[in-house]
Amino acid sequence: MDQRLAGTHDVLHLYESTQRCIVRPANCRIQCQGGCVNKKEEAGVIASISISKSAGPVLDDERLVLVDALRGFALFGVLAANMRAFNLPLMLYDATEKVFPSWYDVWVQALLDVFISGKAYTLFAFLFGLGFAIQMTRSQARSSGFPWFYLRRLGALALFGFIHGFVIWDGDILLPYACTGFLLFWFRKATPKTVLTWGACLWTLSLLLAIGRWIASRLHIDGFAGTGAPPDLTKAQQIVALYAHANLGGLVHENGQMWRQWISSAPFTVALSLPLFLMGLYVWRKGWVQALPERKTTLRRICAWTLSLGLTTQMVCVVAHHLVSPDQPQTILTLILRLANLVSMPLASCGYATGLALLFQHPRWRARVLWLAPVGRMALTNYLTQSIFFVTFYSGIVTGLYGRVGPAWNMLAAVLFYLAQLLFSHWWFRHFRFGPVEWFWRGLTYLKWPGMRVA
Hints:
mainly alpha, 5 strands, about 0% strand
């Protein structure tokens, strides 16, 4: 297979020597083997998609390597942010200083909260919408029929999420993302303007929902009385003792109990995720990914503003959390900080994404950015592997260290494990075309099993 980077034109993906589209300047038409594909106004979208006769698994020549690299970058953030949840009950997720008060643990956790926590999941949600747009473009180019394959894809993802959340780890995000994907599906034919309008309105609604939850908590309405309240340390200690001494059966049982409590917050997760999904859809529909070189100046401005505003606001929120009102969650100041946090996380994620896109276009940095692509190419496998390994490792099944490892050591473990995943992913794709879970997911999606071995 002849794989090269089409770095001097609009398309940022790997391509083969057959059935590839030839990208011409924006004022020209796109030509492929067999004739013209589409009109010039559709060039930005169709140019990055190779056309084949029937729907099927994504081939190597249709992979946007920058998207894979972004996903690989975000995966490290997901792991680093999840480490405290692998090692502590979710009720202590924002209160690790109560269990690990040493200065180095507090500082490491503060840095994680400023630079990583929340930003990785935000970027993942954005990339989900972007991936949806790419698949819908391929589907529409090949057939005008109803894209049943995508509903099967979401159904399979929901199944993975249910098993992952109920059996392995109660902090699963796959099931909420699958539910959000079903909502995103109804925007598949929407214009960019419609997508942007809905995204902005839904994002505003998510902020209003946060305000509503705060008001309901202040009024002690049933179901919200504990929202934002200081964690019950006695109950947390009981959970720690259960997980630290649990065998496999006990671990699954306790995790199922915790998951049933956590899933009640899934509607709020969906409400926060859908605007981010829509932004990914909007960016692709507007042709930003397909025309990065032409938008380099704009990307620099977006990166500078969003990164500075986002991270500065995150610093203020983290400092306020530790110094101003750690045990007074119902004050108006806490509401302001909560809203500032919700707004600034996407800004910081946007800064990371545009920054990586700029580095990708730099000759000296491109190869380094591409090193992240294999990890992102099998992101589902790596995400599930992280949960399985660390949940098992910290539980009574292996070490019984649950609740005893602070943020500093957790961060070291996350770095080492991610490096291992990075090396393994590179080795894997020298021999196989898909990650193992991705291969199974594609089989369920397209009702046929793609070949695994690299020819």
